[in-house]
Predict the 3D structure of the following.
Amino acid sequence: MRRFEDLPEDMRTPEVKEYYDCLVSRRAYRFLKRAFDIAAASVLTVILLIPMAVIAVRIKMSSPGPVFFRQTRVTRYGKTFRIFKFRTMVTDAEAVGPQVTMNEDPRVTPIGHALREHRLDEIPQLFNILAGSMTFVGTRPEVPKYVACYTPVMRATLLMPAGLTSRTSIAFKDEAQMLAVAESPEEADRIYVEEVLPRKMKYNLENLKNGSCREDLSVLFQTIGVVKK
């Protein structure tokens, strides 16, 4: 973990320091977290190779465009990376709508609905975890547009790699429905930044301060339970 003095300037604040001190003192947790990421992601990648190949074929057959959706997201220390997901929307969906997905979003393809319902579109993020830009449990990665709206304390979530899932993800699994009242892409963005994001960050910051190996495993099992429903 970087020294506090070596963090990006917009993270060297009293608000971030409180969370930084908590993480620095948990060296064993950070080591075990990364070791688990590498081991689990390696095993799952091998096990899921054939299912991923089947999904890829179904995507290509259902609509024109690439198999994977690649998008710039923000992770630890404010660094950007390209996230891997199976494509669930029409090609160039961002050009005709907001960067958040609304309820019954017409840009989502038929196969995309099924993938999103069971979170199968997230499987390729195993590659991001192996690369170190993501972890299994942590704050979900936002696009730079929304990170630019972070308050000083929200930037504390950038002390750790972005996560595949979290208690926040479970609590806000129906996020699209919260944006259903929006009458335009601009309104959806406003609601997300002003109403949804602050609520999500309260969960994220609490999880950042109280994270542990036991807590991470609990989140993973709960996520599996939610996906099965």
